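lol forgot to send this yesterday, sorry. struct tokens for the thing we talked abt
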């Protein structure tokens, strides 16, 4: 298996209190085609590590050291536009709580289609067909594409998030 992602000595701190180490010297490697679990108690930095990989840390936090190497590219060296191109297209992330990630005023089909439009230029019937395919792939009837997040169960919303993360067939 080939190396997909390598985190080396990642450290994240609050901007206002850099002596507080929220993520301290974390290193690990993800292999393509393998499942890797990051386990730890609440508050141990699992989510901050993932957000750091995706360059989604809030402005109150900063990465002070470490490298995030994705397919040979250090993501820390990319500008915002370059990172946006990778995020959603080549790297997908499934957030823990779908109701805080899904927009309540947009249908789930629209939200799944957004990354397909932005990253792959999909539109019209091919876009609708791909959205239907993704919903079916995660066990949701394609007819639910016109549903709003609050019309779905918690498990279905989580599966919509999975469909969104795999839409562009990331690495």
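and heres what i got for the seq, position by position
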């Amino acid at each position: 298996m080939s190396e997909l992602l390598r985190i080396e000595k990642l450290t994240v701190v609050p901007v206002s209190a850099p002596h507080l180490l929220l993520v301290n010297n974390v290193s690990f490697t993800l292999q393509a085609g393998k499942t890797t679990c990051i386990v730890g108690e609440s508050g141990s930095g699992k989510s901050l590590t993932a957000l750091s990989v995706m360059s989604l840390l809030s402005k109150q936090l900063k990465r002070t050291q470490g490298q995030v190497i994705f397919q040979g590219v250090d993501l820390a060296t990319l500008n915002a536009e370059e990172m946006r191109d990778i995020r959603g297209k080549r790297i997908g992330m499934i957030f823990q709580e779908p109701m805080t990630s899904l927009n309540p005023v947009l249908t789930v089909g629209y939200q799944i289609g957004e990354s397909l439009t932005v990253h792959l230029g999909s539109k019209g019937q091919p876009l609708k067909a791909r959205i239907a395919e993704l919903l079916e792939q995660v066990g949701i009837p394609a007819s639910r594409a016109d549903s709003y997040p609050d019309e779905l169960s918690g498990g279905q919303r989580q599966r919509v998030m999975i469909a969104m993360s795999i839409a562009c067939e990331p690495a």
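The radius of gyration is 17 Å. anyway ping me if u want another try
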